[in-house]
Design a protein that fits this description.
Blueprint: E1 2-3, H1 9-20, E2 24-29, H2 32-44, E3 48-53, H3 59-72, E4 78-81, H4 96-122, E5 129-133, H5 147-166, E6 172-178, H6 191-201, H7 210-221, E7 232-235
Parallel strand pairs: 1-2, 1-4, 2-3, 4-5, 5-6, 6-7
Helix pairs in contact: 1-2, 1-7, 3-4, 4-5
Length: about 240
C-alpha cells in the first residue's frame, strides 16, 4: 500500500497502524527525511516499509514513485491520498493566484494523478482500495482559507466520481473528513485556544488524535469494507453535527 503525506500526523499514524496489521507500506512525503524516519520506526518494530520522497505537486514525481513502490512490493492494493498543506490567503491578497495554483495542485489535482498512476496495480488487486483525505472545511469554512475548502470540496466530489467509475472493477473509493486533529499543522495553536474551540464546536469537547483518523483509513481498506464506496465520513468528534 502507498500513503502520501506520511512523514507526520495522520499519514505517519496510518503508516504505523497499517504496518502493525501486516501491510507492506510505501511511506511517501515531500519531506523525504521525515518519511525515512517513519519507515525506520516501522522496520524497528518488525514491520515492512520503504520511504520515498514524493512531491504530489509534480506529475513526474508521482508517476515515478508510485511505479517504484508497486514494483518493490510486487503490487499495490491500497492508495491513501493524504498529502496536503494549509494555504492561507484572502481573496484580495496579491499572492492569491500563486497560493491558489499550488494549493489546488497539491490537494486536488494530485488525487486523480495518483489514482491514475496506481490504477494498473489496483486493477490487478482482488480488493483495490482508494481513501482520500479531505476535511470538515469542505462543509464549514474558516475566514481567509478559501483555497483550502475549495480543494477539499473538490476531493469529496472526485471521490464520488471515482467510486462510480471504478466500482464495476471492484475498486472502492471513499473519503475521510478529519476535524480538529492534533497534528503538526495545529502545533502553533495554544492549548488554551484548542480547549476553548473543542468545547465550543465539538460534541466530544476535545481535539482528535491522528490515530483516530488512521483507524478509519484502515477500516476502509479492509476486506470487511468491500460494500462501502463513495462515502464521505467525518472523523471530527461531532463538529459538523453540532449547531451551537
Amino acid at each position: 500500500m502507498l500513503i502520501t503525506g506520511a512523514a507526520s500526523g495522520m499519514g505517519a499514524a496510518a503508516a504505523r497502524i497499517f504496518a502493525e496489521e501486516g501491510a507492506h507500506v510505501a511511506v511517501t512525503d515531500l519531506n523525504g527525511e521525515g518519511a525515512e524516519q517513519v519507515a525506520a520506526s516501522i522496520v524497528s518494530r518488525g514491520g515492512i516499509a520503504r520511504a520515498w520522497r514524493m512531491d504530489v505537486g509534480d506529475l513526474a514525481s508521482i508517476e515515478q514513485v508510485v511505479g517504484q513502490a508497486a514494483n518493490t512490493f510486487d503490487g499495490l492494493d491500497c492508495l491513501i491520498n493524504n498529502a496536503g498543506h494549509i494555504p492561507h490567503a484572502r481573496i484580495g491578497a496579491e499572492n492569491y493566484e500563486e497560493v491558489w495554483e499550488r494549493g489546488i495542485k497539491v490537494m486536488l489535482t494530485a488525487v486523480p494523478r495518483a489514482v491514475r498512476a496506481a490504477l494498473p496495480w489496483l486493477r490487478k488487486s482482488p480488493y483495490g482500495r482508494i481513501v482520500n483525505t479531505a476535511s470538515t472545511e469542505a462543509h464549514a469554512n474558516t475566514t481567509g482559507f478559501s483555497v483550502y475548502p475549495a480543494a477539499k470540496a473538490g476531493v469529496t466530489g472526485m471521490t464520488r466520481s471515482l467510486a462510480v467509475d471504478l466500482g464495476p472493477e471492484g475498486i472502492t473509493c471513499n473519503c475521510i473528513l478529519p476535524g480538529a486533529i492534533e497534528t503538526g499543522l495545529t502545533t502553533h495553536i495554544s492549548d488554551e485556544h484548542k480547549a476553548k474551540f473543542a468545547k465550543r464546536r465539538t460534541a466530544l469537547h476535545r481535539y482528535g488524535r491522528p490515530e483516530e483518523v488512521a483507524y478509519m483509513m484502515l477500516y476502509l481498506c479492509l476486506p470487511g469494507s468491500s460494500y462501502v464506496t463513495g462515502a464521505t465520513i467525518p472523523v471530527d468528534g461531532g463538529l459538523l453535527v453540532r449547531s451551537y
